[in-house]
């Protein structure tokens, strides 16, 4: 097992050169984890990942049946999710999806970030820390949606990696629909007792 290291925090004014942390001492690696030397609470090797954007996904076509199945699975019987006529009375062209529906298609967009070897997350120890959606408009049946994920931040706290991501969801034509924010945590290995 790997022991939780003690981190030497480096002031923001000190330049961090990839591969080195202050001086000529080389970075150290520990069994599949990111570099343990740290600058400002972030693993040095993961600093370059902040701002990285991953390729757009293939379009996901939102279907009425998928919306109905999801609404039933979460126990939400709002008629706007199940009946096109009810959704049209509310001003929508077709049924709309429940607010948490985008998790279905945004997860595949975040997968490359979670498995990025430079970040070094141990998927066997991953827990979902937070999820929120900021809408421009509701997701509708018939939408063909494309996702693009960007890493907003990577931090190392007490040996755990905190990965913050933003996924922008647009139609194939580029119309903004929503932004999904996720925090994924790769927990530190437990100390052997």
Task: Summarize the structure in words.
It is a single chain. With about 190 residues, this protein is of the alpha+beta class. The protein has a domain of about 35 residues. It is about 20% helix and about 25% strand. The protein has five helices and seven strands, in the order E-E-H-E-H-H-H-H-E-E-E-E. The strands form two sheets. It has a five-stranded antiparallel sheet. The protein has a two-stranded antiparallel ribbon with strand order 1-2. A hairpin with a 2-residue loop joins strand 5 and strand 6. It is elongated. The termini are close together. This is UPF0336 protein GCM10009539_11230.
Q: β content, as a range?
A: 25-35%
Q: What gross morphology would you assign?
A: elongated
Say how many strands there are.
7
Q: Quaternary arrangement of the chains shown?
A: single chain
Euclidean distance between termini CA atoms:
11 Å
| Helix residue percentage | 10-25%
Structural class: alpha+beta
Written as H for each helix and E for each strand, in order along the chain, the element string is: EEHEHHHHEEEE
Mean pLDDT: 80
Contiguous runs where pLDDT drops below 50 for at least 5 residues: 1-39
Main sheet record: 5 strands, antiparallel
Strand order of the largest sheet: 3-5-6-7-4
Structure annotation, total helices = 5
Cα-atom Rg, whole angstroms? Answer: 21 Å
Could you list some keywords that capture this structure?
193 residues, alpha+beta, 5-stranded antiparallel sheet, 5 helices, 27% strand, elongated
